[in-house]
Amino acid sequence: DAKTTQPPSMDCAEGRAANLPCNHSTISGNEYVYWYRQIHSQGPQYIIHGLKNNETNEMASLIITEDRKSSTLILPHATLRDTAVYYCIDTSNTGNQFYFGTGTSLTVIP
Amino acid sequence: GAVVSQHPSWVICKSGTSVKIECRSLDFQATTMFWYRQFPKQSLMLMATSNEGSKATYEQGVEKDKFLINHASLTLSTLTVTSAHPEDSSFYICSAPSTSGLWTQYFGPGTRLLVL
To answer: Which residue from B91, B86, B94 is spatially nearest to B115, judged by alpha carbons?
Structure first.
């Protein structure tokens, strides 16, 4: 079962940073947090993952709290094409299977 | 990144027929693949883990005789929906984990099934 909680929806103005929070308070010490997004009627797309340090790639930045109980995905300059459902996933005690929570539906507004 | 394909991308069938969906890892080998189902406006639900050369393991509540999984090679897993009924209409998605040592998964584009 999913062990993460995310706000169900968020809006963000085009060109501004989108900050998407996720609580994963039961994450175990050596498990990664993964972020994916799903654009309507497509398969989920990998965004980024992290363990304890902050991470950045060409798509986004991931900020993980020191206690690892929560993280924030940052899209630095949101575009209309970033409108999607964003999922954070904790694979603790799942045998590396992904259990999706309800995710956050991000709408980027022109 | 790694590419996972699915075929067909959409299918319409009559109630009572069986439908086979293929999932292929195009540029890497996958001893394990995963199958998900997604109903409209809902999240992805893990159905089963497909294991190359052995039986699939199913999540609680998923009927193994209804959803037959075969993983006969390192690049192909198939999901067969047997005796499909309208309530089986859904978006079916597969994934395969990265071979990089981490369990980053790569997802296929999905197959939309409509049972009439």
So the answer is: B86
What gap in Å lies between CA B75 and CA B7, rounded to an integer?
13
Task: Give the Cα separation of B56 and B58 in Å (integer).
Answer: 6
User: Tokens 């809006």 identify what position?
Assistant: A11
Best of A41, A58, A85, A105 to substitute, by most chain B Cβ atoms within 10 angstroms, is A41
CA distance A86 to chain B (A): 11
Q: Tell which residue, A90, A73, A85, A77, has the closest CA to residue A29.
A: A90
The residue ranges of chain B whose pLDDT is under 50 are none
CA distance A37 to A41: 12
The pLDDT tens digits for A58-69 are 999 999 999 999
pLDDT digits (tens, 9 = 90+) for B58-76: 999 999 999 999 998 999 9
The burial class, CB within 10 Å (0-12 / 13-18 / 19+), for B87 is exposed
Which residues 23-82 of A have a C-beta within 8 angstroms of B?
A: 32, 34, 36, 38, 41-46, 49
